[in-house]
Each structure stands twice: as structure tokens, then as C-alpha cells.
Request: fold
Amino acid sequence: MNETRDVVVVGAGPVGLMLACELRLGGVDVLVVERLAEPDRTIKAGAINVPTAQAMYRRGLLPELRAEQETALARFAQFRRDGGMPLVTDGRRPAAGHFAGIMLDVDAIDFDDPRFAELGPAAEVFLVAQQSIEAILARRAADLGVEIRRGTQVVGFSDDGEGVTVDCADHTVRTGWLVGCDGGRSIVRKLGGFEFPGVGPEITGHQAIVEMTGAEDLRMGWNTTPSGMYTYGPMPGRVLTVELDGPPADRETPVTAAELQQSIRTVSGVPVVVTAVHSATRFTDNTRQVPDYRKGRVLLAGDAAHVHSPFGGQGLNLGVGDAVNLGWKLSGVVRGWAPEGLLDTYTAERHPIGVWVLEWTRAQVALMRTDARSRALRAVIAELLASRDGATGVFEKISGVQHRYDLGGGHPLIGAATPDIELADGTRLGAHFTGAEAVLLDLTDSADLRSRVAGWSGRVRVVTAEPTQPQKLSALLVRPDGCVAWAADGGDLDGLEESLGRWFGARSAQ
Reply:
């Protein structure tokens, strides 16, 4: 079978599905191919950060996120009741996350910091597992008419400068663009010859959902021991171990009950007996990143572009961020209103965020080591994280509210995520992004503003409304990925048309 598509996305995990939805929303004919015949049910990330929640909120998916969080909270509560184990032990107060297993005390965080202002209702949703995100996005893709072709293995491709010929095991697809969202062992990255520099692994980790006896002596939460670290809960049978004696000898064979039992016993010292394994995976701290996320008409996103340890669950969030950044840009290029050079901003914006994630995961492994010097450093960092400034700064980082792009411009909001301003008509700004267009928020009912943006109709939608609270802002231009491209205080419209042309192509003839 031979066929032609605008874009082929390889990989139907959360990143590939999010990208496919964004492309389809932008009017692009996209095909997703996935080597697995069924969705991967292996346990993975258990939470999302603020940018991920906001990205899905802007696409109308917040109710589904909330429902998944409510289900997760109910399971956690049942686990505590059934096992007689509180979420907080040894006098520890509730945690807002962790850094290398050092818990961040909610009460120590300064939520009056301006970075937490106007985050909107999306910031209230965080306990959503990766499998749930994938299921939500799969339904969303189906609703949008995205074809997902499972059980399809890519065996080769060639980029001739005009398009890409993708060879699958049983057919060939001709496409304008190929995007690899196929994970840390990406075939697209390997066949495309992308460089992948970084640091090799030094740990063996396991994460699993099991049935076991003797678990009453396991301590809930993150625990440091002489031989490594482990965490137990907060869902029934969920256990994670970290051993620092080198990477696993074999990552390909299935994880067995005996292997998990030995790892739990080694790290915790508790003689548990694992009687059944429902989901299990091995992981390491291999940290690598491609220098450029694009080669010709081939691009990478998610773990295909960067790999690291899973500590803090940043991989899912980093990949979703790649997808929402790339989706509208690639849509614009395919549809012809954006120059191909717009794709250069994808690496320029996303690569630094990837560098930060890789560095923070490496630092966490360093703090998990069992030697005396590392343990002394861990004690110092734990003391700093218990302070108000330390807890607030680290939480701002891991929650994603500090993330921004260096776009230039004089206004402090440019490059940051848009504030989710509450509007007098009963909506919030985030609710106006369910289409593929950028949004120009006009808070002063300016005829001059509407006149200037008229040449970008169909790419930029003007929302004229009054805020419920006084705002210094008079207008805000927000890209489809939620990033502020231009902002004005007091009615000054200087730079608006320049920004419109930079991000949304040339003005159309009136």
C-alpha cells in the first residue's frame, strides 16, 4: 500500500498523540504509526506539572483530568484505609513533591510568590498518571479524526529535501514531514543519524505494581537506606527501588517477581515475598540529548530527543511541552502561512528546557549515592529545602511555573506562559484556545488594535473582554501553545505587527 500524508508521527504514546492532536487541530493530514499492537500499560509517571495541565486545559480536556485525579485520590485513600498506613509518617507534614527523595513541605512554600498568580484551575490538577494521559489523548485523537495505525514498524526512511519516504514493514508512506516520538530507543533518531551525546548510566531502578506479603514493615514515601533508596505507595502494591551499583545487565527480558523481590529486600532490608507482578519496568539514569531536534524534514520530540532518569516525573511533561511547541509551528509550515524557518525556533526554545531537566535529574542521582560525602551533601540540601526560599524555589522549578522562552522584547510577560485571566463574561482566557488560532486579548475594546490584526484573520482570533480584576495589561498576544508573544500596558501597541509577522506569517491582503 502506498499513500501520501502531510505528516507522519512515529509513536502513539502521550507525546505522539499530543502532537497528532495539535497537527489535526491545525488542519493537517496526519498519520500516527506505532510498533505496539496495543497501548503500553507499564507503570510510568504518576503526576503532571502545571504546563502540561494547562496545555490540556486550553484544549478543553480539564474535566477529564479532574475525573482521573479524583479516581487516583480515592485509590490512595482506600490504600491508607486497607493498610492502616497514613500518607504522612514519622511526624512529616504533607509533601508537594520531592527532589532526590527529599520531600518538599507544602507549608514551607510561599504560594504568594507572583509566579503562582493567575495559574487558573489547571494548577489544581496534578495527580494524573501517564497511562491516563495517553488514554485521554487517544480519545481526543479519535474525535479529531486522527488515524492511529498500531502494530506498524518503521524499518527505514529517506529525506530527499522535498519530502520523506517512510518504509514500514508492510507498506510505504510518502509524507512532507516525519516526526519521531518513539521513545528513548527511537528508531527515527537512529536511522536519521542524529547525534546523541550525554552521560552513561550508573544505577539500576525498578518500578512496579505487585502483590506481596511482609509489606507491613515497608515505610511509605521515599526512604534512604545504606544500600540505596526505595519508595512504597501511595497506591496499592506500588514500589520503586534504586540501587547504585551500576546499570542492569539486561534491559530487554521481562522483569520477574524474583528480581523485584531481591531488589526490594536489598534496598529496604525487609524480607517481603512478591507473589504476583501486575506491571513492572527497569530504568537507569542514562542522560542524553540531541543537539538539534531537526534534520531536514525529520524532527524529534519527547524521549526520542532526550533521555534521563524518571525522578520527578519530568519526562512526560518535557515531551508534552515539545509537542505543543512544535504542533502549531509545523501546522503553519504545512499549510503555507508560516515560513519553514519558523521550525528553527522549536529547537531554540525547547532544547534549553531539556538541558535543565537533564541537569536536575543528574543532580538527584548524585544526592542518592550512598558514600559518606554524598550523604553529607544530601543533609545540607535537605536543610536548604526545608527553608521557605529553598522549598519555594525548587517547587517553582519542578512544577514548571518558572519555565519560559527567551523571545526578546521589553515586556516581562513575553516568553512566559500566559496568565489565565478571569474575564467579566464568566470565562477565563485559557478557555479561548480550543481552536488552532493564537489569541489576541483586548482588554480595552480598542478599534486600533482590531484594525492592526485584521490581516491575520484565521491565524489570530481577537477576544475583547473586560477582566474581573484590575489589570495593568491592556492587550496580550498569546501563541497557540500558550506562550506570550507580545504584551502591552496602557494601550501602547508598538511592536504588535512585528510580533504578528514574526510568529504568524505575512499579513494577508485585505
Observations:
- Residues 67 and 128 are 9 Å apart (CA to CA).
- The first strand starts at residue 2 and ends at 10.
- The two ends are 44 Å apart (CA to CA).
- Confidence is low (pLDDT under 50) at residues 84-94.
